[in-house]
Amino acid sequence: MTDLNTLEADVLAQVAAAGDLSTLDAVRVAAVGKTGSISGLLKTLGAMSPEERKTQGAAINALRDKVQEAIAAKKAALEAAELDARLASETLDLSLPAPYRRKGSVHPTMQTMDEMISIFAEMGFAVAEGPDIEDDFHNFTALNFPEKHPAREMHDTFFFNPKESGERMLLRTHTSPVQVRTMVSQKPPIRIIAPGRTYRCDNDATHTPVFHQVEGLVIDKGIHMGHLKWTLETFLARFFETDAVTTQFRPHHFPFTEPSAEMDVQCDRSGGEIKIGQGTSWLEILGCGMVHPNVLRACGIDPDEYQGFAFGMGVDRLGMLKYGMPDLRDMWSSDVRWLSHYGFSAFAAPNPASGLS
Q1: Confidence of residue 355 (pLDDT cuts 50, 70, 90)
Q2: Alpha-carbon gap, residue 357 to 355, rounded angstroms
Q3: What is the mean pLDDT of the chain?
Q4: Phi, psi of 28 (to 5 degrees)
């Protein structure tokens, strides 16, 4: 029979000598593990007589408990020492200046909008702004929307509760009301763009309830579709930074323009990405047309004397195309990892001299 006093002294000495948690755990396994020395003694109890089992069992269990208590106390001491050492090594001298860490960046939507504004500003367009909360006249009626037009319905527009007069204010569904306000307050010639946030009841990979638009308006004498085509093709070539831009106009219908068109740009869809200026595919990219005479009349402009064109495009979608972002909803996810990947430096403001992106 193993001398329990000798075994106890030997195991406790090993526990006391353990200098780290891994060594201590090895001592624990060797003593009270499944094949440990003390566990082995417990397995011999079955071959003893009842009297011996009673005496030796109590002594072995007492030894096991004592060793386990010693191991637990040593483990607590080693963990405390390890924590103290870690805290000592990770101290921070607050009297020193903090190292520079880039925390923020420009959101891709804002970068894209700045790029678009920079291009149009170089082409002679002024920036006009208006309120996000609009009335029915500026958002619909002045833009030649019929009374029962689907865009007026609740499923497409965010309406506020009716006033006592019955009038309902709404969150603008496009930045076209800015064009109306400009035509009402300013005499031709007019050449503006209207960037801003807009709202519609829609949500999927390419639509969000809140999104951004840039709309353009030109009103003057002798304006025709050729001016519109040149303006848009020049913009796309500069925005995508390529001279190989090929476009086509498809007839469409917008209440506020006549004739109306959707503009497609030639692209390559192979390889899981869209490349503008290459390939043989077409991608619808914006809507445009000549300003409807009814819109000019509603704003106090004589359509027999002045003509104009208008266009509108989604800022978020153009940003997705240019910078390879697959899902529009990521722009609203508030994920700093996404922003650190796609974000832009605040010091790299788009301008014609140093470039856009």
Answers
A1: low
A2: 6
A3: 86
A4: -60, -45
Q: Output the domain CATH number for residue 179.
A: 3.30.930.10
Element (H, E) at 78: helix 50-89
Which range marks the domain in which residue 43 is found? 4-88
How many residues comprise the chain?
357
Tokens of 94: 């607050």
What total of structural domains would you count in the chain?
A: 2
Bridge partners for 287 per DSSP = 262, 312
Specify if 98 maps to a domain.
no
Q: What is the pLDDT of residues 114-167, one digit of tens each?
A: 999 999 999 999 999 999 999 989 999 899 887 777 766 755 788 899 888 888
Strands (DSSP E) along 89-225, which ranges?
Answer: 126-127, 133-134, 170-171, 190-199, 210-220
Tell whether residue 305 is among the known ligand binding residues.
no
Encoding tokens for residue 123? Answer: 């082409």
Residue 299 near residue 288 (C-beta atoms within 8 A)? no
CA distance 278 to 298: 42
pLDDT at 1: 46
Bond preceding residue 259 cis, omega within 30 of 0:
yes
User: What is residue 138's predicted lDDT score, i.e. its pLDDT?
Assistant: 92
In whole angstroms, give the CA distance from residue 12 to residue 21: 15
Query: How far is residue 118's CA from residue 114's CA, in Å, rounded to a whole number?
Result: 6
Same domain, yes or no, for 309 and 197?
A: yes
Note whether 140 and 26 are same-domain residues.
no
Three-state DSSP at 323 gives helix
Q: Would residue 99 count as lying in a domain? A: no
Whether 42 and 77 map to the same domain: the answer is yes
Decide if 318 is inside a domain: yes
Measured distance CA(78)–CA(21) in Å, rounded: 7
**Residue 276 falls within a domain, yes or no?**
yes
Of residues 176 and 58, more confidently modeled:
176
The shares of helix, strand and coil residues in the chain, as percent rounded to the nearest 5, are 45, 20, 35
